[in-house]
Amino acid sequence: MKTISLEEVLGTENEVKGENWTSRRLVLKKDNMGYSVHDTVIKAGTETHIWYQNHLESVYCIEGEGEVETLKDNKVWPIKANTLYALDENDEHLLRAKTDMRMVCVFNPPITGQEIHDENGVYPVVED
Ligand code: 9YT
What we know:
six-stranded antiparallel beta sheet
């Protein structure tokens, strides 16, 4: 077995910054676990358009609050600490952070790192 601490990831290539979030990759495809695990912070006051067409993702909120709107039905799902949302239908959605939100994200199949560089499946909302 092995351990990895958040401190070991900070400031490395596995700390990836998007426009509205910073994702610290703890477990990646190269670790051969069949999934990846990220500790992600979403910035307060942001809205992010996300559609992982090739990945299933579970997102466990451990700090903060906000909401998810699923775009197929415009349903709004309040999210706060200790709530997990599972994108079990590759759901296209908007993630709105009221406060900073800290999320533990699990991806199946695992993120390689390369996909995220290209931001495949993640389309930030363009602000006017
Ligand atoms: C919650 C979410 O999907 N945020 C976008 C970043 C993504 N989770 C990642 O790459 O860690």
